[in-house]
Amino acid sequence: MVILIGGGFMYINAHDHLDFYKDLDDAIKIINQKSIYTLAVSMDIDDFLYLETIKNPLIKIGFGIHPWKVEEDTKTDNLEYFIKKADFIGEIGLDFYWEKRKDLYPKQVEIFEFFLQMAKKHKKVCNIHTKGAELETLLLLEKYELKGQIIHWYSGDLNLLDRYLKLDSYFTISSDIGYSKKTDELIKLLPLNRILTETDGPSSLEWVNGEYGNPDYIIDIVSYVAKIKKLKISEVKNTIFSNLLELNKKQTYL
Q1: Which of 32, 74, 164, 241 falls 20 to 30 Å from 219 in CA-CA distance?
Q2: Cα torsion 65, 59, 127, 132: sign
Q3: Phi, psi at 11, each rounded to 5°
């Protein structure tokens, strides 16, 4: 369950790659100091085993096979074991943009569908990558009638938002704040009660502007959402925390 630290609301980092930090101890120190409730995703089994060594009440760990890690010989036989151990499922999904090996797209779909079936079986929320395959992802979520999923760093067709929202999806706002007009539009269009925030690890901010990103960049992201929404920072922070609580009601893993 989500823990209230000192009776207050926490910042939410709904998608972070803890294994990407150069100094994990320093990153965790920041997470503790700033009370940042963190969903740490994995990209494969090795990532998950590494995350399992982290014992911190503010950090929940997910298990997934990232679409970039999908190979023709990727098997699902032993994956349910890790799914059951994980607090949530992720990072999983489809990538038909950055991943140029088009011959592997059918295999991506196969692996993604397996995880969606497991999510339904074990009642766990998914943390989902959709790049270049936003419609395909949506169609599969509708096929399996999965509601209350986390859509990570969405940059696709904004005309699909209503269908995603009908599935009770939550959208993360990430490190491209102030650099992406699409993200500005996403913030404007989404109801505040469907927004979460994320950093996507230190390398994501580096990709955006060349700066190494620490976990407390989440504070800047919350402030930016408040600016675009023309709301008080405290209101946005508290609502995003409440959004995670609502997601937790659908599952009891967080």
Answers
A1: 164
A2: negative
A3: -75, 150
pLDDT, tens digit, for every residue of 114-131?
999 999 999 999 999 999
118-to-5, 126, 139, 150, 207 alpha-carbon distances in Å? 32, 10, 17, 16, 32
Q: Name the β-bridge partners of 16.
A: 40
